[in-house]
Amino acid sequence: MESDWAAENLRVIRTLMERSAIYRRALAPITLLAGSVGTVAAAIGWFAKIESPRAFVGFWLAVAVATIAGCFLLLRRQALRDGEPLWSPPTRRVTQALLPALAAGLICSAIALFSLGGSEEKTASIVGLFCLPLGWIVFYGCAVHAAGFFMPRGIRLFGWMFIVGGCGLFALGIPDLPRPLYAHGVMGLFFGGLHLAYGIYLFCTEKRKNEA
Amino acid sequence: MNPEPFLQLDRVIHEKGRLAIMSLLAASPRLSFTEMRDTLNMTDGNLTAHMRTLQEAGYASVTKAFQGGRPLTTYSLTAQGRKAFTTYINLLEQIVEQAKSRK
Fold first, then answer.
1. Do the Cβ atoms of B62 and B51 come closer than 8 Å?
2. Cα separation of A57 and A60, whole Å?
């Protein structure tokens, strides 16, 4: 019947239009890279005794810049290999979704970096080694969740893990651990461990999907 | 049932493969050849043939450039193509509406 056929065509059109807007770059290599860098950085931060709040903030900002640069190179390589434009409309949408929360985290870090020097040691330690890392985790979760609207399913859940985890640790309060150990440990766990776990999951599922 | 909307459907867009291509291009300012081929699971030859038909109808335009020393072919809808696609969707909706109003 013509009307059934027309309704079915409209459904197909809608699905295809949605699919066209989805970000298609393989995420497994990117999350694995971010996870490896996060884990190694946490270990370096702890063993190199990066313990002052300002040094901690500076160190992790440098790690973030290095990770973003590495991810950009991976994305560029994928785009070149697949013969697709790097700055495609889905890439632009994902970047725009990521930016507000990441910018908020960066601004808070910059303020902390400049103001921590003049504050009392205990306050600086709480802000720099407790509040900021947890804040970064929550901001990052928000950024990933926002970008998840333009990416395959599953990414938003990954974002929620950061948001719930960060807020949960805030709720648990300041632990009875050396603060630098706690700060590097939390960063390693979330930005290292969670990314690695998710990267391995994506690697297995993307591989299976490609084989199918 | 009024057969008018069905008879007015654009034959260029009406073909399944080309309708899929038009749908993708309508949702994105431009798409590369490989993006469309992979999303629609088409062969190179099939996609090329459909794109040629759409270009000849004035519905799609092609841009050839280089990225990292490799050729990059991207396609986009022309204003005429966007208008034709909108008309096609409106006609489909009319057909569905007619069927609903008869029930």
1. yes
2. 5
Which residues on A lie below 8 Å from B84 (Cβ)? none
pLDDT in tens, A84-96: 778 887 888 899 9
pLDDT at A184: 95
Q: Which residues contact A205 (CB under 8 A, 6 or more apart)?
A: none
Residues A167, A160: Cα–Cα separation, whole Å: 10
Helix (H, G, I), strand (E, B) or coil at A199: helix
CB-nearest partner of B95 from A2, A24, A80:
A2
- Take residue A160 and report the two structure tokens written for it: 């929620």
DSSP for A81-107 reads HHT--SS-HHHHHHHHHHHHHHHHHHH
A174's enclosing H/E stretch is none
Q: Please tell me the pTM assigned to this model.
A: 0.74
pLDDT of A35 strictly over 50:
yes
- Is residue B68 within 8 angstroms of chain A, CB to CB? yes
Decide if B90 touches A, using CB distance below 8 A.
no
pLDDT above 90: residue B5: no
